[in-house]
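From the shared-data thread, chain only:
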Amino acid sequence: MKKIIEVENLDVRFLQPQGELRALRGVDLTIQAGEILCVVGESGCGKSVLCKTIAGLLCKEGVIHSGAICYEGVDLLACSKQESRTIRKKAFAVVLQNPQTALDPVMKVGRQMDEVLKLHRPELSKPARRLRLLDALKQVGIHDPARVLSQYPHALSGGMKQRVVIATALLKEPSVLLADEPTTALDPTVAGRILDLFADVHKRNHMTIVLVLHDLAAAYHFASRVAIMYAGKIVEIGTKEDVFAHPLHPYTKALLDALPSRNLGKPRLPDLSGFAFSEEAMRPFSSTHWAAVPKGASDAR
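Structure, as tokens:
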């Protein structure tokens, strides 16, 4: 299978008054064309930072990058800003966690979506753009798209907002869709429907999807491969069958053992002994952050 994205030794640090907060620690990851890759891990392990770094959405001030992010052989961190922006604008689309903040509350849905088409499909006339917007909303399961286009976001439910956000992302016709915990703000029933929608989009468009999730059961159901993140690193990656049936890393085993189906009758959840980082390196950040490197330190292993 063709490799579409290759991440090599990716390091991301945020400059803080105490030193450098290290969010990603030498991440290596290959994403194959046409797959659904689920990235799983606890809150704060670096999943969102990884997605936003690949998409180029992190604020440049106060951020240090090193390593490589190659899209079809082009290193997006090494090429010029203009070239990187052009490639990312065409190739990537992002669905963020909270649809409430992804949509402008004072602008009608149709106008917001039309702005995306004006940018990415400037050759289309206004009537052609409207037909494209109606079709996009139908594809994500909205049965009265004309009404939705004429409404403000506050008039829509959480699930409807997320469908609009997904439809807007698909208007770009991206090669890679990065979905950063797209079901976090939704109730379980609606979350299941949204994940079904991603599976349908993948099947219909043969699109590469990187799906960040907390739900291990959902990851097993929807993923082609699963990547486990812990303390800013990818600690295990493989087919969902291999990772779930034969986990190799202690953190992966602890995650799976924490599932209710595996934990019935046990007095407490499993935990991991020791420290992810040395106590000395963590001390300057002990009151605020834990995955950090103080000034002058090369690493905190």
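Residues 290-296 have pLDDT under 50 and may be disordered.
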